Amino acid sequence: MYSGEKELIKRLKDKKSRNAAFDLLVKTYQQPLYYHIRRMVGNHQDADDVLQNTFIKVWRFIGDFKEESKLYTWLYRIASNEALGFLRAQRAKPSGNVDAETHVAATTDGPDGDSIERKLGAALQTLPDKQRQVFDLKYFSELKYEEISEITGTSVGALKASYFHAVKKIEVFLKTH
Amino acid sequence: MKKEENSENEFLQELSPLLFDKRIAVDAEPPAGYFDGLTDQITDKIIAEDGRNSRGRTKIIQFVNFRNLAVAAGIAVIIALIPFFNSNNIDQTLRSELVINTDTEISELNEYIDESDLYSAFEENEFSKTAVSEDLNEEEIIDYLIREDYNEELLIEMR
Q: Which domain of life does this protein belong to (chain B) (predicted)?
């Protein structure tokens, strides 16, 4: 944990500096967390709800943060759990709709890139939630297995197996679609 | 460590060239300006939630206070009234005994006192000797009444 992060946590736990520190925390982590959540839940509206709930939980539970892990892995853990919880709740609803079509929008130039991104987005939707979470954290967020292990509470070995399975499934999807 | 990572990357490259030849980004962009106002939105939500929670907490605290007060007051009243109830019970018992005494009919009393007891009590007090067996003439009776300061008119009538 670098000193800037420690200082931020200290300020977050201090009532006097809490508001300003929280503002800084949101500004620092809102984008990576938003994209992670959005790839998990599929659309902006839901991603917005989940992201806001994530930061609200951070605000409420920062006092309980023991600093045994890095701040951003703790943030990812909250975001991931919130997203998984949201997806479970959506599935439990009779009219649950995770819209695969709205999941992906092209961000790179050229028709080929656009096509493969859309396909990848659709392929992600075919993965089980936890496999998608692992794939997202490894492939898109480029976290180390050890960090993902901290976030998900899964062993590194199990994470590797899960990631390879996900890659294999996506490859098959991309080839066949 | 580096060796392990490289072999893993090679493995992935072989497994899915489409994914690893070139990193694919699927970062769908949020509406323009979304990130600018996010902090304010979250802060507003926290304030609103805190407001709701504190209102809820106040209600609970009030409810708990009233309930505790009611229970405490109830217990205090019961404790305070215990002597009253006790004395009231004794009083009622006494009263009920009195009522039985005054309203008890002779027939009911007979159940408690045997006739022979009454005779023996009468004999013990020697009523029969003094009042019944004394053979008094009229003169003696009048003298007695005069001594006892009885009404003269009545005495005249008797004469």
A: Bacteria
The pLDDT assigned to B16 comes to 85
Q: Is the residue at A103 inside a domain? A: no
Q: Is the same domain home to A59 and A94?
A: yes
- For chain B, say whether A65 makes contact (Cβ under 8 Å): no
Count other Cβ atoms within 10 Å, centred on residue B45: 15
pLDDT digits (tens, 9 = 90+) for A82-135: 999 999 998 887 764 544 434 443 333 333 445 788 888 889 889 999 999 999
ipTM of the complex: 0.77
Out of A35, A52, A121, whose CB is closest to B42? A52
The CATH number given to whatever domain includes residue A171 is 1.10.10.10
- Answer whether A173 touches B (CB < 8 Å): no
To test the contact with chain B by mutation, choose from A18, A98, A120, A173 the residue with the greatest count of B C-beta atoms within 10 A, namely A120
What distance in Å separates the CA atoms of residue A147 and residue A149, rounded to the nearest whole number?
5
Are A92 and A24 members of one domain? yes
pLDDT tens per residue across span A71-81: 999 999 999 99
The DSSP element (H or E) to which A27 belongs, if any, is helix A18-41
A47 pLDDT tier (thresholds 50, 70, 90): very high
Distance CA A44, CA A29 (A): 17
Q: Shortest CA distance to A50 belongs to which of B109, B37, B38?
A: B38
- Report how many helices (DSSP H) and strands (DSSP E) chain B contains, helices first: 8, 0
